[in-house]
Write a structure and sequence with these properties.
The structure is a homodimer. With about 325 residues, chain A is an alpha+beta fold. Chain A has 10 helices and 12 strands. In chain A, the strands form 2 sheets. Chain A has a 7-stranded mixed β-sheet with strand order 7-9-6-10-8-11-12. In chain A, strands 1-2-5-3-4 form a 5-stranded mixed β-sheet. In chain A, strand 1 and strand 2 form a beta hairpin. Chain A starts with a helix and ends in an 11-residue tail after the last strand.
């Protein structure tokens, strides 16, 4: 999408402040007084980031969760949010507000403010959220991976993508997969616990392979991903199996909102211990080496990169 | 617009944090580790908040300026912004980015981050901005007016509303008025200087009368506005004259982005001195008394309130 690349290229010189991290990270990091603020803004567009038939409560959850996922990737605890809301159908709006309230309570986040607007008829609903978090320790970036680091991912990959196909009627019904598309879980506790240990961390929103490629590019290393190690859920295996094609689907589907992170090899045991403590799978899926770009294998076999690594939108 | 009132009523219980100020102020005030952050989020919708034919550079300016105006009303200095941008036509996007950069430089504000999205065809462009500011001193609210206070407004009122009519072809061409609609001036220096002096302050965005009525309601006082004292520009007088009807137009038009504030009467002289220092008119337009609601007069004559006080949108 060259329009977006052009636009971001025009904006990058405006983001000269160190806090902006060159617009290439999940969030901005602003040191003010003695406080380390982490700020992110993500939008959802009806028909692009959620399905028009998705329940409003789930859309509300997703709007909050995708932003909290950016905070999680930076090891920040959420403080509050400001929402930009486009009014539409009254019943939908009310259900959205109920769901948004439930999600805020679940994550212990305050609604600080925002704006509501009416929109001309025929306009797709556009929702924006700014999340403000506070980091007590170091804030990992995407660019810190060093050759020799091992790569991990949290949870399971590909469920949300399969869930979208379920909801479109392309796969048999599966509540587990649909829920993973509609209600991503921001990995806040894991992000906070991992932040002091990792060389680099980001959330997987556009697809494991494309996000790993971005991490490799930002860090100036080569990242190799072993498809055979990509963690799949039972629901995913039931729907799509775990052959190479299914694994490629999982690794390029996006909407996972899991954490992708790199640690020096001597910390791999600490990560394993943390996985037990958090009751969350943290799976070793690859390693970084000197070089550039992304490498893909399946067990011992080297694979060519698929043409599409994930979503190219921002 | 009952949809919006319902929606805000549903959200208000979620905004229990003191920082949210009950969603009834221009901005949220977040105290974090010795730092007093002021946060606001305002959106612009094509065809609602700006004209589709407005130059993209001016839309960029306006998106920044309306948010900085909220910071000004809270006496905060801007630190940075996060933008939610809907991509459209490439040339428009590029011109917007140029204009946005120029506006950021003019106000010394950093772009910290944000999101870009594509939208389905036919969707009106929706832009969102979160502005982060820092207040070194007290942060005035809308609710601090006391009986006996005098009311002031900065700059001139009604120009932007007249400018919109110029741009719609309803009034003869006037660059000065059109510029006031397209390029509002956030009163940042005045806001910072006034914050320690005022009992209450807000920006005038929806119309002087409706915003004064909101200030009266929030403060639990009656506010009387003297139409004869409402400051009009030469350009406004040329276009519309200064008879009572024109003054009512000015006071209900909105988009002024001037500061409305109350001070105890003994500080009126300090305000006058500040106006000289800032080279910005600060005009006494009324007073607060015990009671409720808004009162309107024109010189000595008491007037009934007009049916429409300003824009009811948020």
């Amino acid at each position: 999408m060259t329009g977006e690349s052009d636009f971001l290229a025009s904006l990058r010189p405006l983001a000269a402040a160190a806090a902006a991290r060159g617009l290439a990270d999940d969030a901005a990091v602003l040191e003010l007084g003695g406080t380390r603020l982490v700020l992110t803004h993500d939008m959802l567009v009806e028909g692009v980031h959620y399905l028009p038939a998705d329940p409003p409560e789930d859309v509300a959850w997703k709007l909050l969760a995708v932003n909290l996922s950016d905070l999680a990737a930076k090891g920040a605890a959420p403080v509050g949010v400001l929402m930009g809301y486009m009014l539409g159908d009254n019943a939908w709006d009310r259900a959205f507000a109920d769901g948004f309230g439930a999600a805020l309570r679940k994550f212990g986040v305050a609604l600080l403010g925002g704006d509501t607007v009416a929109a001309p008829a025929g306009t797709a609903r556009v929702l924006g959220l700014t999340a403000v978090g506070e980091a007590k320790g170091p804030v990992p970036s995407r660019s810190g991976v060093r050759a020799g680091d091992v790569l991990f991912v949290s949870g399971t990959i590909g469920d949300a993508g399969a869930g979208l196909r379920v909801l479109k009627g392309e796969l048999p019904a599966s509540e587990a997969l649909a829920a993973r598309y509609r209600r991503p879980e921001p990995r806040l506790a894991a992000g906070e616990a991992l932040a002091p240990l990792v060389s680099a961390m980001m959330d997987v929103s556009d697809g494991l392979l494309i996000d790993a490629a971005r991490m490799a590019a930002a860090s100036g290393v080569r990242i190799g991903i072993d498809l055979a190690r990509v963690p799949l859920s039972d629901a995913f295996r039931t729907a799509l199996g775990d052959a190479q094609g299914a694994r490629l689907d999982a690794a390029t589907a996006g909407d996972d909102y899991e954490l992708l992170f790199a640690v020096p090899p001597e910390r791999a045991a600490t990560v394993a211990a943390l996985a037990d403590l958090l009751d969350l799978p943290l799976t070793r899926i690859g390693a970084a080496s000197a070089g550039r770009g992304l490498g893909l294998s399946d067990g011992g076999e080297t694979l060519p990169l698929p043409e599409r690594l994930g979503w190219e939108h921002g």
